[in-house]
Amino acid sequence: MCGHLSVNIKYQQNEKHFNYTTPKSFLEFMKLYGNLLGKKRTELTQKMERLENGLQKLQTTASQVEDLKAKLAVQEVELWQRNTDIEALLDKIGQQTDKLNQERAVADEEEQKVAAIQAEVTKQQQETEEDLAKAEPALQAANAALNTLNRLNLTELRTFPNPPAIVTNVSAAVLVLLSPQGRIPKDRSWKASKMVMSKVDDFLQALVNFDKEHIPEATVRCVRDEHLSDPEFNPEFVRQKSSAAAGLCAWVINIIRFHEIFVFCEVEMKRMCLAQANADLAEAAEKLEVIRKKLAELDSSLETLTTAFEKATSEKLRFQEEVNRTNKTIELANRLVKGLESENVRWAHSVAQYHEQEETLSGDVLLTAAFISYAGSFSKKYRKELLDNLWMPFLRSQKIPILMTDGLDPVLMLTDDAMVAQWNNEGLPGDKMSTQNATILTNCERWPLLIDPQLQGIKWIKSRYGNNLKVISLGQRGYVDVIEQAVVAGDTVLIENLEETIDPVIDPLLGRHTIKKGSCIKVGDKECFFHPGFRLILHTKLANPHYKPEIQAQTTLINFTVTRDGLEDQLLAQVVNQERPDLEHLKSELTKQQNMFKIELKLLEDELLTRLSAADSNFLGDNVLVEKLETTKHTAAEIEMKVLEAKVNEVMINEAREHYRPVAVRASLLYFIMNDLNKINAMYQFSLKAFNVVFHKAVAMAEAAEDVKSRVNILIDCVTYSTFNYISRGLFERDKLTFTAQLAFQLLLMSKEINVRELDFLLRFNIEHSYVSPLEFLSNSAWSAIKVMSFTDEFRGLDRDIEGSPKRWKKMVESECPEKEKFPQEWKGKSSLQKLIMMRALRPDRMTYALRNFVEEKLGVKYTEGRKTEFAKSFRESGPASPVFFILSPGVDPLKDVESLGGKLGFTIDLGKLHNVSLGQGQEAVAEVAMEKAAKEGHWVILQNIHLVGRWLGSLEKLLERCCEGSHPDYRVFMSAEPASTPQEHIIPQGILENAIKITNEPPTGMLANLHAALDNFDQDILDQCSREQEFKTILFSLCYFHACVAERRKFGPQGWNRKYPFNTGDLTISVNVLYNYLEANAQVPWEDLRYLFGEIMYGGHITDDWDRRLCRTYLEEYMQPNQFDRKLALAPGFVVPSNLDYQGYHDFIDEMLPHESPVHYGLHPNAEIEFLTVTSDNLFHTLLELQSPDAVMGEGASQTLEEKVKTILDEVLEKLPEEYNMSDITSKTAERSPYILVCFQECERMNTLIFEIRRSLKELDLGLKGELAISSEMEKLQTALFFDNVPDTWTKLAYPSTYSLAIWYNDVLQRCKELDSWTQDLSLPSVVWLSGLFNPQSFLTAVMQSLARKNEWPLDKVNLTVDVTKKFKEEFNQPAREGAYVYGLYMEGARWDTQAGVITEARLKELTPSMPVISVRAVPNDRQETRNIYECPLYKTKIRGPTYVWTFSLKTRERPAKWVLAGVALLLSV
User: Which residues on adjacent β-strands are paired with residue 537?
Assistant: First the structure.
């Protein structure tokens, strides 16, 4: 805890961040530790079990392989036997097949023969049938003729006794035909015929059965030749004779015809052939049938063999498969064992590691839990310090050391590559800090609260949770309902843009104050069921929020502020994306791919283990599993190859990208310089988003170049200059040099061109003014600085050289612009920074010029030219989401620019497109309506003086955000506000400032510019308006000069005006109106009235200090006199009020006649400028010192840490600190209680209070540094003050006003103690009192009056102090004054005392505050007070004047007192 507290303090001092550690934080840390330890233990056990299981499986696999090999041998023998049997069977089948084939060939031959015969038979049959068909008609006709014959008509025919010749012929023909064997009868007479026909039935039967196919040839010839040749041989003809004869006639004719056809076609022959053929066919068919039977037998026997073969073959195949399977299993097992060889080694290694981790788990988790609980709010460096320098050594140094892994990275305890890769893919920046933040966020026990000014964390969270995230901001309508629903449903809620205070409504939720045994929680006024999955994420965009300890105890602060290297990488990506989009695309694809690979590899490894663990004991038979394991392994190997390939590509891409690294390094540095500017003024807030836009534009605008190197140099230059312009337009003049110097120093430190130690010396310039200068041209402080410098190696011998050749050094020191001169001797060869250090010693007043020259030399002239950006150009950069913010300065109205530009662009009040709201007096509602309307319709809104409505600014910030979403593109907002005088009073929200384009408009500097600016408020018409032209113009010109004087005099600090007043152009214009009215109304110029109106009312209305009022009055008396009408009044030496000119004539007169800028213009002595410049340069260096990070100031080479340095100072102070005064001893020394003695007592008491506080606070801090006390915020402030050589506030409150740094102030305190020591010796008044050494010099001066009034019995209210300046110094007095007292330790500023003449006189050049001789202070009655030739001179404690006023001394003068009034002459008690 203590170690952590010390880092809290250091963080608060160096970075101004508040971080609290409370008992509640500790309890939450213990709870987290318990939960984490349990979780990690379970995880570790599971991991070990899985790996051991996997390893076990691999060992089993290796042993199973041997068994499988034996089994395989047996299987192979059996397989061989089966192969032999099958081969024998194959032979047999072969022989049978040959036989079958031979038989089949014979059968085929026979079949062909049968087919040929068959064809022949068919052909012959066909021919025979065709021929018969031809003879058929004749046969039918013959049959038909026979059918006509019957017994009756034949009988009738036979009865013919002597038939006609033709009938006889017919019958004869019949006889021939019927003659047997072709023996033709010789007797063919009718008688013979009748004989044949006698047996009618037989005759008829013979006719019917006549063998018509075998008629002998002779018979045919005989019938044809002898009978048929008779022409009458015609049935028709014969029918006339006899029907029977006719039938016989037809029969004969047809029979002969039939025969002719039958014989002609060789029908018979053919018939015989056919019969023969049929016989052949029958024989062949029989033969074929025999062969077929034989074939069928052979076929069936072959089939039997084939079936046997098939069975044997399938058996063999099955067996072969079994052998293959065994083979494959062996092969798979070997592959598995071999493939998982690397895993085997890795897993075994991991298991061993896990066993080791078991030993260190408690310590590792303790450290990790501490990191999550406590480290989140710190920046990178402090996290490292907590881990490496505090916690680890602390845990190791215990009596029983807590075991831890060496060099433990808490992030690795909770994440792996895959998880980080997933986050990066979701948009988390890739730097280590962001990874730590994400780890804390995902593991913290308390709700995370993100400090996220650059909105990088919230971007990642929104991308990570997507649509499941409920985003709200406190105060938006209905936000409590959203929270309520989420609590019940177990959703994640993001509350964004928190302020430093948090709505009490969500208190129970923040602290998780559950009720009803943890099941419910109060949200608003409802009790809700508390879902265990509910998660709350809080977010603020404040860069440095100060949350109360109770809020920090309930949340885990996570500092998401962008880091230098994180931003560098982002900017590198951006510049490469613009310059080489191809590369950046490749790179981002590669990164994504690499990230995916990491995730995939992790999943694959998990899958491998899961499969192995889940597999049966005999999993080798499970091919799918083994193959899947193989695939997994193969994929993993492929991915690893791709990873290697990607790495090679990445190296190439990175090499190409690295060329642009210097641009990103420079831009990142610029952003951080820009981000630190709010230490100078809280108005200087800039967002990363806005910076990115500037960066992007700069890269786009940069000129092209031939090669990458030149291009990179151009880019660096362009980015630097664009950022410089962007920032400086929003800075006050006084801060511009601070910024450019810081820029130059940081750039040179980065490029190692300057030495940190030298820079630290230049900025601190810790010189104790303890040396007396031997040279009249060097003051004591300058000589002291030279002496201190001479102790260092770089400046050894400088004091001797200056004393050795004073003339050359004097010439340089007294030069008007020494920064342009060359240093004498070899000192001219010193580095620019060393020359700056010497210049700060010799001429601190010229440091602003010297620093400007330094910047010009290192960065270029364009960084020191004070060119003003025209408003139109700035306007072009604005947009609906980028309002314009005017930081107001007294006497300037920047909104004129807006109105004139609006006029050109058509946005005017008359057109209703410009809404001008001056805030205050309840104008907030008007402004809200105007903004809503403008956002919709694209108008402009001017919000003036927003600093007057502090309470409404939070609403304004949200309104600005809301209105710019989806607004009209022409919508613009212009705001103006005055900067707060102190950081504590600053009220303008960061959100409004950082996104706005900030523009400062300051009044002109220098008399010339001021005088022109004053005249610019008028024109020729105004000059011509008054009837009394000359008086009016002349007094108006004097008024302008007076206005320029009072405005510009402010730059001289307290010597100009005791307090700062906002004189503005309104004062001048109203005064001119009054002048016009009075001149028109009066015949004479009413000088008194005018001076009174101007000095006491118009300008005097601002003035609160009497001395300032006197100054203002004196100016008017000097510049407004009747003699100015005749050109006799000189406003400044050589600058007379001009006579009657026109408007342009006055401007020309100023340009021509006004002398060169000098304090003399304002009535001041030239030394005032030295004073003002010295103060300016001191402030500048003080600011620069505060801008350096304390570590940079300490420097790498410095051996002391911040604590050590503070401890050294603390010990030194305590060692020299005197004891407190013993008041009882002192008061008992005398019974007298004269006014002087009472003053002495009071001074001792005050010194006691101061000494007591110094001792108490330092001892307390000492205990804090030793770690024996918790460091409080007071102790932190004290430590910071000691480190920066400032006087702590708690001491200042009890001391006296002082402008000294701590070292000088402390010496001063010791001197005062010495003075009091001598006074308290015998309590008699010292011969000369050191007035400056008193806490309360007024009380001493009053004591002088009191003692003299008592002595002379004068009434105290009628008495006044009078002073006589003696001609002697302190050493020359050895006894006190008889009346009153002698005092010393006074200095005069603005003039000097002429000791010889005894009057105030003109100061010597460069002698800023000459010391006064001893002054005799007495009291006299008022009426004896001298009033002639007297300057009423105020006495102040310090150069701050104003509130440190002590008294008024009347000093003699020969000059007019007005001169000293204008010169700001005063007496000071310390310089």
Answer: 494
